[in-house]
Each structure stands twice: as C-alpha cells, then as structure tokens.
Amino acid sequence: MSVVGFDVGFLSCYVAVARAGGIETAANEYSDRSTPACVSFGPRNRSIGAAAKSQMVTNCKNTVQGFKRFHGRVFSDPFVQNLKSSLVYDLSQMPSGTTGIKVPCFYTDAERRSVIDAAQIAGLNCLRLMNETTAVALAYGIYKQDLPTPEEKPRTVVFVDIGHSGYQVSVCAFNKGKLKILATAFDPEMGGKDFDERLVKHFCEEFAVKYKLDVKSKPRALVRLYQECEKLKKLMSANSSDLPLNIECFMNDIDVSSKLNRAQFEEMCADILARVEPPLRSLLEQAHLKKDDIHAVEIVGGASRMPAIKERINKFFGKEPSTTLNADEAVARGCALQCAILSPAFKVREFSTTDVVPFPISLKWNSAAEDGVRTMHHLSPKCQYVIQKVIPQASGESSKIKVKVRVNIHGIFSVSSASLVEVQKSEEEEESMDTEQSTEKEKENEVLPQDTTTSAEEGKQEKKSDQPPQAKKAKVKTKALELPIENNPQWQLANDMLNLFVESEGKMIMQDKLEKERNDAKNYVEEYVYEMRDKLHGIFEKFVNESDRDALSLKLEDTEVWLYEDGEDQPKQVYIDKLVDLKSLGQPIQDRYTEFEERPKAFDELGRQLQQYMKIVEAYKTKEEQYDHLDEAEVQKVDRMVNDVMIWMNSKMNQQSKQSLAMEPVVKTTEIQAKTRELFSTCNPIVTKPKPKVDLPKEENPSEPNGPVNTQENPEAQPSGTEQAAADGAEAKPDMDLD
C-alpha cells in the first residue's frame, strides 16, 4: 500500500512518500524532486512535467501552466474572463460549465470539491485534503521532542507560506501530541507571480522604447521573457549588485539586453511588498494574541526567500523568521505524514490535528411571497443550499427549523438534514379519551401478579383521571417534519459527467502509453542504425566479409534516410518490422563476435573439470586412501568419459582455429556448456561418493571385579554402616571424573 502526499503548486509539484525509515521526497524520471506543474498537448499524446515545460516556447498555444487559480471556477466567472486575455493558451467552456483544468488547490469549498473530483479522475484515493499551512505545522510539530505537556500553556508558532500564486499565514498552538490551528489569514492574489509580472511589465516598456518591440504581441517572446525574469528574480534574492538580462534572437532576430539590481526591484514592487503586513495583523486579531505571545515564526514557500519579504516579517513580529523547514517540500511532507497517520499500513506517533475553517456560514430568509424558501450558503453565494417546503404554523406563527450542517475531514461543507418543528395542541375530548385508556391499562397491570409496583407516570395519570374532564388543560405536542434540501451542484461535477471524465482520462492514458511505445520502437530502430554502423568498422570488422559489410552498410544508410523522411510518423508495427529486417543481416555478425568472446571461457571451464577428474582417477590408481572406497567399474567409467570429452574438445579447438572469424563457428558456446554439464552429471556423483561407515565393537562391562575388594583384604579396617555410606558418597564423584 502506497502512502503519498501531494503538493500541487502554481509552478511546481512535490510528491512525498511514507516509508519504513520516514518521509522521503520522490524524484521524477529526471532525478529531480521538483516537477513542473505543466501539461502540453500534442497531436497524438500529452506531455506532463519537465517534458511539457520544455515545450512552453515551441508549443506555447497548447502548453498549460498556472492553472491552479482556475480550480473550481465556472467559465463565466469574472475572474476567469479577466485573466483569459492575458494567457498565451486558450480556455474553452466544458459541458458542465467549468474550465477543463483540474489540479489540487485548498482555498474554497468549491475548489475542495473540485480537487476531490480531480483525484477521483486521476484514480487516487484521497484520504484527506489539508490546508497548506496545516500540513507545514504537522511537519514542524510531529518531530519536536520539547513541546509542553497538555496541562501546560501551549507553544504558539506562526507559519507564513508565500508561494508563487498565494500568500497564507496561520497561527498554531502546540502541545505534546497535538496541534490546534487558532486562526488563518491569506491574500490569494499576492505571490511570486506578482513580482514576475512587475518585472515583465518593466522590461516590455523598456524594450518598446529601446528596441521598438511589442513583446506582448508575440506569445513565444512573452513566455521567454517570463522565464528570464523568473531567473533574474532568484538571482537578485542572492545578489544586491547589478545583474544583466540577455536574450538572444528575442524578436525579429534582435538580441535584447538590460540590467537591474535589488534596490531598483524593491522600489518597483513597493506596493506589492506593502501587502505582506495586513494578513499578519488580521491573524493576530482573529486569534486574540499579542506579538509577545508568539514563540517563533516559520516561513516556507518559494517567494519567502526574497530578502524584502523576510525583512517585513521580521519588522512586524520583532523576531527573525526561522527556516528550519524545507521551504519547498514542507507541505508535501506534512501531507504524507497525515496520510500515514490515517493509513493502517503505518504505525506513527500519535499526533492529533485540529484545523479551522476560515469561511463563515451565512443564512438568507426569503419573503413569504416566495413560498417561504430558506437559503444557506457557505464561502460564496454560488455554493448554496435551499431548504424547501417551509410553511408557517397553523396558528400563523413563524415555524421553527432545525438545520444540521457538517464540515468533513476535507473541509467540505454540507447540510446533512433540515426539519420543521410543528407544534400541535390536542382537543380536551381527545385528551380525556387518552386518559381513560391509560386508566384501563393501569387496572389491567394491577391484576397481573408479577407487577407489584406502578410507575410515577401511571400514578400521575391515575390521579388525573379522578379530576373532572373540564378542568384539564390542552396538551401540547411537537412533531419534527423532515424537509427536502436542494443543493446547487454548479461547483461540483455530476456523477454522469464525472464518470465521463474518468473514462476520458483512461483513454488519454492509454493513448499516451501507445504513443510512448511507438516512439520507443522508432528510437530502437534509430539506435540500432547508429550502433551497428559504428561497430561494422570497429569491433565487428573481423567477423564480417567485405560483401556482407557493404550490403549491411547500404541497408543502414537507407534506413536512416527513411527515418527522417517517410518513416517520421509510422505505426509501431512498421518500426518493429524494420528492426527485424535489419537484425536479419546484423544479428549473425553480432552472434559471431559474441561466440568469439565467450567460447574461450567455456573451453576453460570444461578443461578445468577434465583436469579435476583426471587427478581423481590417477589418485585411485595409486590407491590413495581418500578414494579407495570407490568401485573400480565406476572409476573406469569416469576415465572413459574424461578421455572421450578430451578428444572431443581437442578436435573442436583444432577445427575452430582453422576456421575464419567471418564464417559460422564450428562449435558454439551452448554446445560446450552442454558437454560440461554432461561431464559433471556423469562423473561428479561417482567421485563424490562418501565412504561407508564402520561400526566399532562394543566393550563388555564385567558384572563383578576379578580382584579382591578393599574390605576383603583388610577386614579390620571395614568401617561401620554410617561411615561406609559417607565414604561411598565421597568416592562417587571422583570415579565419574576419572571415567
């Protein structure tokens, strides 16, 4: 069972895996732990990750990046429409009304539901969606050994996560074995991308004046400028001097160049940097904390490396921001830890996590003219639940409605049930009839011998039955009526649409697999052409005659030309057949070379065994004790076998020495190995036969001693009964030691 944590960011993704030794960040096929969050669509297949990022310039119209902000939004959303014009690729409306891009993002209820759908489409079993700062807090706290006990005052730590597309902060209270998120705040529109865009805007204006170039009119040039500005931003975080920006053949074969330093960059982005403090201030207000209550400030995220951001965080809290966590991998590691805690496959230290939902729940009461429909919505008016059939009481009073809402482990809001509390007042006659019936039941109970007592309710009813009916009060009853709930599925895919996407994803995966196999088959042909052409004039030169070499060289040359012309885009089977055709000429040459290399080793092994068995036969003939137990007939069988194999080996070696290397070998390695196995199976059981065991004769113990005992030789010295027993006991142990 795999236990994996995913951190899908704006620019890159990280995958952490829980193993027996701890949490590890997985590397991709390029041995890189960071995988670009990028997808490129080609005519036949998709490219994902690093392969897609390499096509951002050459295939910019069909390469999608930065789609995290579209998660869970409808196509008609003003945010999507405003951003659509600035993208180099196109967005299209899907049948469900949502944009066709799905990668995890943990902001709103709608986006959380979209993430669950995306995980299901991708075939992932999502145990929990975690807020990024909560995952960071878990990765921080679970390894701490000095946390206060549950009875002591918790340790308060602030976590600041500034990524490429968003800015999030949270304050967390730690005790031993648990953490609790006290408050969160964020600015979803502030991140590293804003600094990149400011740089791009600056250089677009500069190049328009300096080189008369309209950069935004050329998507490829704009993508290249974004890439170079991102590199320049990272360099300015480590250097304060002037740094160059040079791009060759930028537009219209014009090379462009410029320079910028950190001071100029920070001045240019002063309004963006001013947005660092408001979420921090809001965080302390929500948690009702003072700056002195904060024990530490941890910063993560790619944009947190900028000195200007660190400086403002330090100035606000009066504490130097700590960087004990890996700024890029902390979120993925925290998610993997949470997954390991929830999974039965791992035994993890107990550590409870209490998260917080930063969005409120609002209620809307419609007028009676609208049939009394009540609406509840969470996060935004688009995510709403409509409670139907709400009617006033029979008396004209307003109805009382009980609504149960839930927030599950993913942070997704739902209305589980809604009921109308109906108040009913019963008639006096009806109540009197009920009382008489209860009295009759009491009398019946009194007749039964086993019932010795009556309940307090029965006594009370019996007492009431003695009163006149006109003195009784009307009885009030309450009845709960379940109300239907209508939810707006606009932010979540319907089951039939979700199944359609799962099927489409499966088809695309299969298409990607088939295209990869086709490309691999083509690469095998190309690889064989270049490899065989080099070897024909190298190590294979002695193993092929001139006519065969010329024929194969011509075949290889024709195949190379075909690969780059008619064979550029052919089915997989065509490449397989082409490779088989080439190997029909080249494989015999390669086999002769392989035989030449392996045949001496096989002859050496056969000769070593022959020498071994010849020595054993000679030792038997000289009557050595080690082999004197062997049967003479069997030894003669070994001798004959050794002689026959020796003659065969010498004959084959002589014939092979006279054979040309360009001809088929007289004997192949497989024949020599078969002969070696035959020799071993025939001779080895005979020469390794163990000696028979010889049974030694058993010694007979005499029943009585032949000589006289001490008491017989010296009767006067015979002790009394007690002394004799003591002496016998004392002499028993030495006798055993002597034996």
UniProtKB/TrEMBL annotation:
One MF annotation (Gene Ontology) recorded for this entry: ATP binding
Family membership: Belongs to the heat shock protein 70 family.
Signal peptide (UniProt feature, chain positions): none
The name this protein goes by in its record: Heat shock 70 kDa protein 4-like
Localization terms from the record: Cytoplasm
Name of the gene encoding the protein in the UniProt record: LOC107677720
Region of interest called Disordered, as start-end residue ranges on this chain: 423-479, 683-739
Pfam families the UniProt entry points to: HSP70
Residue stretches of biased makeup (Basic and acidic residues): 457-466, 692-701, 730-739
UniProt cross-references to SUPFAM superfamilies, sorted A to Z: Actin-like ATPase domain (SSF53067), Heat shock protein 70kD (HSP70), C-terminal subdomain (SSF100934), Heat shock protein 70kD (HSP70), peptide-binding domain (SSF100920)
Record keywords: ATP-binding, Cytoplasm, Nucleotide-binding, Phosphoprotein
One Gene Ontology CC term in the entry: nucleus
Bias type Polar residues, positions: 708-723
